[in-house]
């Protein structure tokens, strides 16, 4: 699954209108490779383990040069979770400190990487080396960037309070408008070339709430819980979070039913295709991703059944 998904994802990336399948399949390839590594180590088969280490290292390097913190944290976290059943003590001793170190130094590394790669057009490989070297040699752990990450970015509470201040006092609740816009986002652009740009639809409520000014070169998409509040206040949050958990559970159970259990159903397919559930996003992006990931899950199921890889007992 790891080997097949990766090249197919790059093919989709270069076909107009199918780019979102690139993100689904590349995430599936990463999960498959990490799961394969977690299974191969206890088997003590050298070549299997070596190949899986190569896959994992490639994915980790890609995460380091992405300019985002989340893929790096997820890379370490997922491997630790998959290894835990076989190596409980080692995972506790190694991976928990590793995650703490990431939270201490990653904001500084990421800030330096973005300054070089995004602002000064330094290529990703050179920017990665500069950022890593500067972070390791730094006399301080980047208290400013750490505080911004842990308080304002990781929790998203700072942005949430801005929306609470403006809605419903100055901007009325949106009701079902955001759900309707999400239905629009699902329609492929190749079928509707003049479809509104999803980013513009989302940013409109950010501007209305005064979170950032119009014309700013900043993306500040609200989190899922913010959109739930904007739709119906505290009751909207309750309904939204209940639906979030229920839908996750139903999809996970469907995946296990289709693919014959937890390992293939939840650990591989659900974790690979529905990673957006781990972090949430605004309604439009979340619902669009979940809808098409669900379609992809059934396509993979049919392919595995037709090829005889997956058989009904």
Query: How many β-strand stretches?
Result: 0
Largest sheet report: none
Radius of gyration: 21 Å
What is the number of helices? 14
Residue windows where pLDDT falls under 50 for at least 5 positions: none
Helix content: over 70%
Morphology = globular
Q: What is the element string, with H for helices and E for strands?
A: HHHHHHHHHHHHHH
Oligomerization category of the chains in this entry:
single chain
Overall mean pLDDT score? 86
Structural class: mainly alpha
The fraction of residues in strands falls at: under 5%
Write a short abstract of this structure.
By secondary structure, the chain is mostly helical. It contains 14 helices and no strands.
Task: Please describe what this structure looks like.
With about 325 residues, this protein is mostly helical. The protein has a domain at about 155-313. Helices cover about 75% and strands about 0% of the residues. The protein is built from 14 helices and no strands. It has helices at about 1-15, 20-45, 45-65, 70-85, 90-120, 125-135, 145-155, 155-165, 175-185, 200-210, 225-260, 260-275, 275-280, 285-305. Helix 9 (about 175-185) packs parallel to helix 14 and helix 11 (about 225-260) runs antiparallel to helix 12. The radius of gyration is 21 Å and the shape is globular. The two termini are about 20 Å apart.
């Amino acid at each position: 699954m790891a080997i097949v998904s990766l090249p197919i994802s790059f093919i989709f990336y270069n076909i107009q209108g199918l780019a979102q399948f690139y993100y689904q399949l590349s995430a599936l390839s990463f999960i498959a490779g990490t799961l394969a590594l977690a299974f191969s180590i206890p088997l003590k088969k050298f070549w299997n383990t070596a190949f899986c280490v190569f896959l994992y290292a490639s994915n980790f390097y890609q995460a380091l040069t992405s300019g985002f913190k989340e893929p790096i944290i997820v890379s370490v976290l997922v491997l630790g979770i998959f290894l835990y059943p076989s190596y409980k003590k080692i995972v506790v001793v190694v991976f928990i400190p590793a995650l703490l170190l990431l939270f201490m130094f990653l904001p500084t590394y990421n800030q330096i990487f973005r300054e070089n790669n995004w602002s000064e057009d330094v290529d990703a490989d050179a920017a990665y080396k500069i950022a890593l070297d500067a972070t390791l040699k730094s006399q301080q752990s980047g208290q400013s960037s750490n505080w911004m990450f842990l308080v304002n970015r990781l929790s998203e509470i700072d942005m949430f309070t801005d929306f609470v201040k403006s809605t419903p006092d100055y901007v009325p609740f949106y009701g079902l408008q955001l759900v309707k816009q999400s239905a629009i986002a699902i329609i492929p652009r190749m079928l509707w070339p003049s479809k509104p740009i999803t980013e513009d639809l989302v940013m409109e409520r950010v501007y209305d709430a005064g979170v950032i000014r119009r014309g700013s070169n900043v993306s500040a998409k609200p989190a899922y819980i913010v959109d739930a509040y904007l739709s119906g206040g505290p009751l909207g949050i309750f309904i939204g979070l209940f639906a979030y958990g229920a839908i996750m559970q139903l999809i996970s159970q469907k995946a296990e039913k289709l693919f014959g259990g937890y390992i293939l159903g939840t650990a591989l397919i659900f974790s690979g295709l529905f990673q957006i559930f781990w972090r949430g996003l605004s309604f439009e992006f979340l619902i669009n991703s979940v809808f098409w990931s669900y379609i992809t899950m059934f396509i993979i199921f049919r392919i595995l059944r037709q090829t005889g890889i997956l058989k009904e007992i």
